[in-house]
Amino acid sequence: EFEEARKWVANHLVFDKNVDVNLFESTIRILGGLLSTYHLSGDSLFLEKAKDIGNRLMPAFKTPSKIPYSDVNIGRGTAHPPRWTSDSTVAEVTSIQLEFRELSRLTGDEKFQKAVDEVMKHVHTLSGKNDGLVPMFINTNSGQFTHLGVYTLGARADSYYEYLLKQWIQGGKKENELLEDYMRAIEGVKKHLLQRSQPKKLTFVGELAHGHFSAKMDHLVCFLPGTLALGAHNGLTADHMKLAEALIETCYQMYAQVETGLSPEIVHFNLHAQKGHKDVEIKPADRHNLLRPETVESLFYMYRFTGDKKYQDWGWEILQNFNKYTRVPTGGYTSINNVQNPSNPEPRDKMESFFLGETLKYMFLLFSDDIDLINLDKYVFNTEAHPLPIWVPA
Ligand code: DMJ
């Protein structure tokens, strides 16, 4: 299968196309995938392709502030923000660093790393943070955060936090500003966003909007227990591991408390006990499941670092439910519209590429006891589950 795919990459993967692509999605999926495949196979074809797409994405950084635009035309070499704004998403501009830094290391051309390091340095100095928590938008003209006052670990901010830690690990734990920002942010999470639900007293990460706490948690936030565990494994404070243990239980309950045993996209937690109510409430607009990886990803880290079999059992349960409710008899899997209806989960006829790239890969790793099957002291996973080497392995 690899040879077949290699042939396709060699003969048909051409980036000289007059097409707009999203900088972040293309970096984490295409550039990250090619760099990772280069490392795992040693085949220079993949590095050549990585260089090609890397160069084609660079025009995104030509902005007044050097905070990149969200969209690039990879054939024409032009870039622009979304039609309705000159803002970029904070998670997007701060979650392309692992890939571009690695591309510089491999090619010896420092322009890639320079562009993405500048973004991190700039964000490090910005005001508008709340105890290390960042807003969701940043303006490509002024370089300032916009839409101030809303803080989440979910959509539009999530992987900012993940990449602070992972860049620090990738670079051999020397870049202190990254670690400082990460540690401060986790303190910010504890201070502003952590609450416990009723009746099970599950620890969850909510959101803050202009001083008001909301008990809303995106499934996307479930990357956090894995990231916290990875930090603890790399010598950060043991209470990050305690928090990881509490949060992964919550993420598991976001599956277990639902009729199909599959998590919706967003849940709201009950802060007060009510007869007949579980911890997790689901709004009609949020009851879809896109086959997302975050919980399974965190289960993998938790199992690697603790050896506690319950994490494998929870992952197995989730896999059974994916098989039961999302598997398509003629091949593949599909997103569903309604996790609350086991007799008709409403298949969408759409399988996101992160299901293969991340969800199934993390399942595969979770069910293995071989710590050298991607050793976490030698590799760091990018946010699309593509392993990249740690520059100075432990
Ligand atoms: C993936 O593209 C990445 O994991 C990203 O960080 C978040 N969204 C999807 C998976 O849910």
Automatic annotation (TrEMBL):
<keyword id="KW-1133">Transmembrane helix</keyword>
<dbReference type="InterPro" id="IPR036026">
    <property type="entry name" value="Seven-hairpin_glycosidases"/>
</dbReference>
<feature type="active site" description="Proton donor">
    <location>
        <position position="265"/>
    </location>
</feature>
<feature type="disulfide bond">
    <location>
        <begin position="222"/>
        <end position="251"/>
    </location>
</feature>
<dbReference type="Pfam" id="PF01532">
    <property type="entry name" value="Glyco_hydro_47"/>
</dbReference>
<comment type="pathway">
    <text>Protein modification; protein glycosylation.</text>
</comment>
<keyword id="KW-0812">Transmembrane</keyword>
<dbReference type="GO" id="GO:0005509">
    <property type="term" value="F:calcium ion binding"/>
</dbReference>
<dbReference type="GO" id="GO:0005789">
    <property type="term" value="C:endoplasmic reticulum membrane"/>
</dbReference>
<keyword id="KW-0106">Calcium</keyword>
<feature type="active site">
    <location>
        <position position="158"/>
    </location>
</feature>
<keyword id="KW-0735">Signal-anchor</keyword>
<keyword id="KW-0479">Metal-binding</keyword>
<dbReference type="GO" id="GO:0036503">
    <property type="term" value="P:ERAD pathway"/>
</dbReference>
<feature type="active site">
    <location>
        <position position="294"/>
    </location>
</feature>
<feature type="active site" description="Proton donor">
    <location>
        <position position="25"/>
    </location>
</feature>
<dbReference type="GO" id="GO:0004571">
    <property type="term" value="F:mannosyl-oligosaccharide 1,2-alpha-mannosidase activity"/>
</dbReference>
<protein>
    <recommendedName>
        <fullName>alpha-1,2-Mannosidase</fullName>
        <ecNumber>3.2.1.-</ecNumber>
    </recommendedName>
</protein>
<dbReference type="GO" id="GO:0005975">
    <property type="term" value="P:carbohydrate metabolic process"/>
</dbReference>
<keyword id="KW-0472">Membrane</keyword>
<keyword id="KW-0326">Glycosidase</keyword>
<keyword id="KW-1015">Disulfide bond</keyword>
<dbReference type="InterPro" id="IPR001382">
    <property type="entry name" value="Glyco_hydro_47"/>
</dbReference>
<dbReference type="InterPro" id="IPR050749">
    <property type="entry name" value="Glycosyl_Hydrolase_47"/>
</dbReference>
<comment type="similarity">
    <text>Belongs to the glycosyl hydrolase 47 family.</text>
</comment>
<feature type="binding site">
    <location>
        <position position="383"/>
    </location>
    <ligand>
        <name>Ca(2+)</name>
    </ligand>
</feature>
<keyword id="KW-0256">Endoplasmic reticulum</keyword>
<keyword id="KW-0378">Hydrolase</keyword>
<comment type="function">
    <text>Involved in glycoprotein quality control targeting of misfolded glycoproteins for degradation. It primarily trims a single alpha-1,2-linked mannose residue from Man(9)GlcNAc(2) to produce Man(8)GlcNAc(2), but at high enzyme concentrations, as found in the ER quality control compartment (ERQC), it further trims the carbohydrates to Man(5-6)GlcNAc(2).</text>
</comment>
<dbReference type="InterPro" id="IPR012341">
    <property type="entry name" value="6hp_glycosidase-like_sf"/>
</dbReference>
